[in-house]
């Protein structure tokens, strides 16, 4: 059956609106689209493009040009040569855009210095709804990438849902800075896709340190918005930076405490909105963290909480998505988050399976037994307890490095005589933490204590 | 191995302390070796933590252009020089 409308425009905005803050100032929708059309005509003739541009405006322009040209943008989970190569191996009909050290893959230099066409009198291209526009890769603990396909229909519908969920009452144009890379799903949704469908102008800068974030925001007119993660905004609060007004702070990638949200709101005269989502489904819920514990589900999605699994579905998604979270529905459109699936950990915005990490650890030569775990709720890193007679912690780390995403490397690794396994072979968390803390104390005493003479 | 200067040693101690690198001692950090990636294997969370520790200890706000984050943290020597240049 043919749908009534088989294509939709690249952007819903007026040509005179401001869509980006580039290195040379404001860029209107008309200028932007004209440049994207011009660039689309020059792109190499391939199906896929790996867009590694660090400059957000360049990524944005490259992405839209590819969409216009009917090409699909590949977004590897990081910029490391190995990861990029892996994507290129799986999608050989591809080329590279942006800064990279990867070689052996065709490179296209977009020459962004040439501002190109400069007209506001431009016809907005229509994009077929079934066109595959992006593949976002999620990497598990092993670095093995899972592709998440984003069709134009998926992109358009989920972005309109995000606009409704996050900035429904926002009238004046939001000037937005993101600390998250545009290639990451959260950064992609907010800083690339939302400006196409709502009154947002995005900065080309991706600041990193607290002072950089303040400088980037200060260079923009009010009202301003910041798209970030708890790690970044926590650093922003702790560093003694200037007080500036940030109208909205959007946070994702890890849970934020109500206390942190309240402090941010006070310090920056902000409203903190935390979002819930994943690369497979995109954003599907939000909460005002300073005052709310419950998450409000977007009305585009259905959350199906079953006995042993939680599924999120929507008509614009290619398939149902199983969540690795434990949640409890409250009324029609709210839910309470009770924690992650016991096996799953999230570090630096990356999701990994403890079972898989444990399997890799115990498979190492010389390792008799071993386990990864989170020492406590506030830990930013995993720790590992390992039974490996004759081996040092550094040996274990060296052996783990090639097969594991760096964020998941345990810190610290303690070599212990044995693990406190129960008769069934199970490891109780309480016992693990006890052994961990005990080992930590002994190590501290050894470091400080007098040496035998 | 090139020797650390006294100042570099102080910064090396700050690195080990602020990032809980239990299996690395300050003396192990080679001044010209990369801190991130293959070197000490640090990542962006570490960069933020370390930046915060540097701010608290030396009252220096680390700043970087987009592409320069890695440059400032490229080695113990470079980071120490950056702190020294920006300490009043």
What do you see in this structure?
- The complex is a heterodimer of chains A (453) and B (88).
- Chain A has 453 residues and is an alpha/beta fold.
- Chain A has eleven helices and 27 strands.
- Chain A has helices spanning 29-40, 56-68, 81-90, 152-167, 185-197, 210-218, 230-238, 258-268, 354-362, 393-400, 429-448, and strands spanning 7-9, 18-22, 25-28, 48-51, 72-75, 94-97, 107-108, 126-128, 132-139, 145-151, 174-178, 200-203, 224-228, 248-251, 271-278, 282-287, 295-297, 302-305, 310-313, 321-323, 325-330, 334-340, 344-347, 350-353, 369-373, 383-387, 413-415.
- Chain A has an eleven-stranded mixed beta sheet with strand order 3-2-12-11-13-14-15-16-17-22-21, sandwiched between helices. In chain A, strands 7-6-4-5-9-10 form a six-stranded mixed beta sheet, with helices on both faces. In chain A, strands 18-19-20 form a three-stranded antiparallel beta sheet, with no helix packed on it.
- In chain A, β14 (248-251), α8 (258-268) and β15 (271-278) form a beta-alpha-beta unit.
- In chain A, α1 (29-40) crosses α2 and α4 crosses α5 (185-197).
- In chain A, 44% of the residues are buried.
- Chain B is an all-alpha fold and 88 residues long.
- The relative contact order of chain B is 0.19.
- The mean pLDDT of chain B is 80.
- The chains are: A alpha/beta (453), B mainly alpha (88).
- At the A-B interface, α6, α7 and α10 of A face α2 of B.
């Amino acid at each position: 059956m043919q749908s009534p409308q088989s294509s939709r425009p690249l952007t819903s905005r007026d040509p005179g609106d401001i869509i980006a803050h580039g290195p040379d100032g404001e860029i209107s929708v008309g200028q932007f689209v004209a440049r994207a059309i011009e660039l689309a005509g020059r792109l190499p003739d391939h199906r896929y493009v790996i867009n590694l541009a660090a400059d957000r405006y360049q990524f944005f322009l490259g992405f839209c040009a590819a969409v216009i040209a009917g090409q699909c943008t590949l977004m590897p989970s990081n910029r490391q040569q190995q990861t990029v190569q892996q994507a290129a191996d799986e999608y050989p009909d591809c080329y590279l855009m942006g800064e990279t050290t990867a070689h052996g893959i065709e490179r296209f230099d977009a020459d962004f210095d040439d501002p190109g066409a400069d007209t506001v009198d431009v016809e907005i291209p229509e994009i077929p709804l079934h066109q595959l526009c992006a593949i976002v890769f999620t990497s598990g603990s092993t670095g093995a990438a899972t592709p998440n396909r984003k069709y134009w229909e998926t992109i358009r519908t989920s972005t309109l849902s995000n606009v409704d969920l996050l900035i429904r009452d926002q009238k004046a144009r939001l000037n937005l800075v993101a600390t998250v890379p545009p290639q990451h799903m959260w950064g992609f949704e907010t800083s690339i896709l939302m400006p196409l469908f709502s009154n947002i102008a995005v900065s080309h800068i991706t600041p990193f340190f607290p002072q950089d974030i303040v400088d980037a925001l200060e260079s923009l007119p009010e009202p301003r918005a910041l798209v970030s993660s708890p790690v970044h905004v926590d650093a922003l609060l702790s560093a003694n930076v200037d007080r500036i007004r940030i109208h909205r702070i959007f946070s994702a990638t890890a849970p934020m405490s109500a206390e942190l949200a309240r402090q941010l709101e006070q310090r920056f005269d902000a409203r903190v909105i935390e979002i819930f989502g994943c690369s497979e489904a995109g954003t599907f819920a939000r909460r005002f963290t300073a005052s709310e514990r419950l998450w409000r589900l977007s009305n585009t999605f259905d959350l199906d909480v079953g006995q042993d699994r939680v599924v999120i579905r929507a008509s614009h998604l290619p398939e149902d998505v199983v969540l690795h979270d434990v949640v409890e529905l409250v009324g029609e459109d709210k839910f309470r988050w009770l924690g992650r699936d016991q096996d799953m950990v999230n570090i630096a915005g990356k999701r990994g399976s403890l079972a898989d990490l444990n399997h890799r650890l115990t498979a190492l030569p010389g390792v008799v037994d071993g386990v990864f775990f989170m020492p406590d709720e506030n830990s930013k890193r995993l720790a590992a307890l390992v039974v490996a007679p004759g081996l040092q912690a550094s040996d274990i780390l060296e052996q783990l490095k090639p097969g594991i995403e760096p964020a998941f490397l345990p810190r610290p690794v303690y070599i212990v005589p044995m693990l406190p396994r129960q008769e069934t072979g199970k490891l109780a968390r309480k016992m693990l933490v006890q052994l961990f803390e005990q080992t930590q104390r002994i190590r501290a005493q050894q470091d400080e204590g007098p040496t035998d003479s | 191995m090139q020797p650390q200067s006294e100042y570099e040693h102080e910064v090396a101690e700050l690195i080990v302390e602020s990032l809980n690198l239990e299996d690395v001692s300050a003396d192990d950090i080679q001044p010209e070796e990369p801190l991130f990636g293959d070197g000490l294997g640090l990542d962006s969370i570490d960069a933020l933590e370390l930046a915060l520790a540097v701010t608290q200890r030396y009252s220096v706000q680390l700043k970087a252009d987009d592409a320069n984050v890695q440059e400032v943290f490229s080695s113990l020597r470079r980071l120490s020089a950056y702190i020294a240049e920006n300490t009043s």
